[in-house]
Amino acid sequence: MTESKLPLMIGIGSRIRKSPYYESNLKYGVTGFTVYNKMYLPTGFSDPSKEYESLINDVTFGDFAAERQIEVSGPDALKFVRYIQPRNLDKCDIGSCKYIILTDMDGGIINDACLLRLEEDKFWLSPGDGDVILWLQGIAINSGMDVAIHEPDVSPLQISGPKSGKLIQKLFKGEHDDLGYYKAMQTSLEDIPMVIARTGWSGELSYELYLQDRKLGNKLFELVYAAAEEFNGRVIAPNIIRTIEGGLLSYGGDFGREHNPYTIGLGRLVNLDQEGDFIGKEALKVIKEEGPKEMLVGIELEGDPIIKAPENFWTVNNSDNKKIGRVSRAFFSPRLQKNIGLAIVDIDYADEETKFSVATPNGDLQSVVVSLPWFKAEKDTNLNYCLLYTSPSPRDRG
Predict the structure, then answer these.
(1) Contact 68, 125 (CB under 8 A)
(2) Mapping DSSP to helix (H, G, I), strand (E, B) and coil, where does residue 131 land?
(3) Integer Cα distance of 344 and 350 in angstroms
(4) pLDDT tens digits, 310-357
(5) Which residues are 194's β-sheet partners?
């Protein structure tokens, strides 16, 4: 007699941290979790295509607390932040946010992050999956700099979609209508302390509410839920379709420490001419001069609609059946009516219109390199029209 197979599940226990919005996730029908930064991160509340339609047409919100914040503070905070990453921060004023990459001594990428400057000597880093806090604490020990590095009580709740401006307007009674792109400021909502920022990882106009009291997580979730009903709001998880369309990268999947900023198209975040030193500066000079050996590209894949994301990297082969790269994420785009994906391939195969084969669990699929992103960034809140507006453009990183 054959035993029936039980569905695969992720075990919920005390070892992995639950977010302040965990009970709200359960209440509103979360269908699964993954582990991200040693926290439970929702993977869905309904079909990804339904969540996608709400994201591009209305307004969505969800638990992004797994973006565990790292606070860098002290007299040498700015000096330290300059040292750990290669972007020039001369124009990073208080209230500014910057997209940065953290590099190691060989130019490899430790992680990417959103940097928020909250005070003269206080910054938050909102990183991808990984032990960034340990890396930074290790650097600080022998740096000779007067800095303190710890994890504050901060838990982002993300609001995204063309109507997100209207939702923020309603929640805060117009107080933050003039909040600029990639700007942040301290605020509160019904005595719930938080920082509001025009940041996010969604592919659409986004805000993040950086809750500063985890005991009030479910209260904040309910306030947003009630206000969002007017705009057809939906609770969602990070959406794979929209982030691929926007070319928004995920550390540990789309790229890792074995890659450098030039490989993944983020050379603009490396300023080799600035006077100050930073980790990996000499190595990145050599990498830039020699040129990358491989490149992250967008691809379109033939075949039936891909409705299940890769569980492992899919191998990319040339016409001689030689491995030339790997696909990290792929899915069917309803708007494009195409399968699209992200791949890192040998530099000789990175030009647009280059064709190759991708080995998938359902057979080999012919694929072609295209430019990234499929949709450019929308940075305008467009408050006068966002009740009707359904822009096809994503937002990018500042």
Answers:
(1) no
(2) coil
(3) 8
(4) 999 999 999 999 999 999 999 999 999 999 999 999 999 999 999 999
(5) 187, 211
Query: Strand order of the sheet with strand 184-189?
Result: 184-189, 192-197, 206-211, 155-160, 60-63, 234-235
314-317: long-range contacts, CB 8 A cutoff, minimum separation 24: 314/358, 314/359, 314/360, 315/358, 315/359, 316/343, 316/345, 316/349, 316/356, 316/357, 316/358, 316/359, 316/367, 317/356, 317/357, 317/358, 317/359, 317/364
Number of residues assigned to the chain: 398
Model confidence at 252, pLDDT cuts 50, 70, 90, reads: very high
Decide the pairing of beta strands 323-333 and 355-360: unpaired
Q: Nearest to residue 252, comparing CAs of 82, 112, 97?
A: 112
Separation of alpha carbons 127 and 38, rounded Å: 13
Write the single-letter amino acid at 182: Y
Q: By the 8 A CB rule, do 193 and 127 touch? A: no
From the CB of residue 223, how many other CB atoms can be counted at a distance below 10 Å?
16
Burial of 291 (C-beta count, 10 Å sphere; 0-12/13-18/19+)? exposed
Cα angle at 256 between 251 and 260, to 5 degrees? 115
Distance CA 347, CA 327 (A): 15
Assigned token pair, 124: 């938050």
98 and 89 Cβ atoms separated by less than 8 Å: yes
What are residue 293's DSSP bridge partners?
none
Sorting pLDDT into bands at 50, 70 and 90, what band is 71? very high
The per-residue pLDDT of the chain, averaged, comes to 93
pLDDT digits (tens, 9 = 90+) for 157-186: 999 999 999 999 999 999 999 999 999 999
Whether residue 72 contacts residue 78, with contact meaning beta carbons closer than 8 Å, is answered with no
Q: How far is CA 88 from CA 75, 85, 99, 125, 200, in A?
A: 19, 9, 11, 16, 21
CA distance 330 to 307: 9
Q: Own/partner pairs for 34-42, CB < 8 Å, 24+ apart?
A: 34/10, 35/10, 36/66, 36/129, 37/66, 37/67, 37/68, 37/127, 37/129, 37/130, 38/68, 39/65, 39/66, 39/68, 40/10, 40/12, 40/16, 40/66, 41/66, 41/237, 41/238, 42/237
Residue with tokens 């699209």: 340
